[in-house]
Structures are given as C-alpha cells and as structure tokens.
Specification:
144 residues; globular
C-alpha cells in the first residue's frame, strides 16, 4: 500500500510539472488571434495583419492586403468568436461574428493553425508549397 501511494504521488508531480511547462510555452490563443485580426482590419494595418500570419511563409503580405481590401476599415465590433478543432488540435476554424459601424452583421471564417507556439492566421503558403522540383502542376484537362 505504501509503495502505491508513493508511485501515485510521483505520477501526480510529473503531471503537474508537465502542465506547468505547457502553460508556460503557450502563446497567443485562437480568440486573441481573432481579436487582433479584427483590430488589424479595422485599422487597415497591413503590418499588423502580416504579423498574425506564419513567419517565413510566402505571399503573406499579398493575402493580408487582399483581406484588407475586402473587409478593412468597417469599424467591426466582435459579438462572438466560435472556435472549432474538427481536423486536428493544432488547426482551428474560427468564426467571427461582428457588427460593422452601420449596424450591419458581419461574419468571417478565419482559418488558423499553431505555428511556433502561437495561433496564426492562414495567410500565404509554406516556402516551396505546390512546387515539386520546379515542375508545373499536372493538367486538369481530360485526355483526348
């Protein structure tokens, strides 16, 4: 009986130590990322939106500019943020429900993933993505 209590105590200590390490390394959450995304849209701030994208990815700034062209400067106020992890723990589909300055409803689905400890908005693409040895993608035309 004494040996099992000691083993149980060690197991609890290891669990607590593991939890403490996970919390310490946790960066920006999905909700914090969604809120920062809306702030960047409202401020029409390309640099802020780029910082929410994954570092080292290609095309992040172009995607950020496209998002700002579509939804920037609307004066959005967040009503609700819904986070779903349907595919994996490190991938999130985040639904942002807001109201613009004219009182019109606004909804955006913001795809995110965990990158280097932070939740980032899926902007751009990983370096070299979609290119195999410099070859062009296969044709989608039917053979004749």
């Amino acid at each position: 009986m004494r040996k099992s209590q000691v083993l149980a105590g060690i197991a609890c200590a290891l669990l607590l130590a593991g939890c403490a390490q996970e919390e310490k390394g946790q960066g920006r959450t999905e909700r914090q990322t969604a809120e920062a995304y809306v702030r960047a849209l409202n401020d029409r701030d390309v640099a802020a939106l780029v910082r929410l994208g994954p570092s080292g990815y290609e095309g992040v700034e172009a995607d950020a500019r496209e998002a700002l062209a579509a939804d920037g400067g609307k004066g959005l106020k967040i009503d609700e943020v819904e986070v779903s992890h349907e595919f994996a723990a490190d991938v999130a589909s985040t639904r942002v429900v807001a109201t613009d300055r004219q009182g019109r409803p606004f909804t955006a689905n913001v795809q995110m993933f965990r990158h280097e400890g932070d939740w980032v908005v899926a902007l751009g693409q990983a370096p070299g993505a979609g290119v195999k040895g410099g070859a062009s993608p296969a044709s989608t035309e039917s053979p004749r």
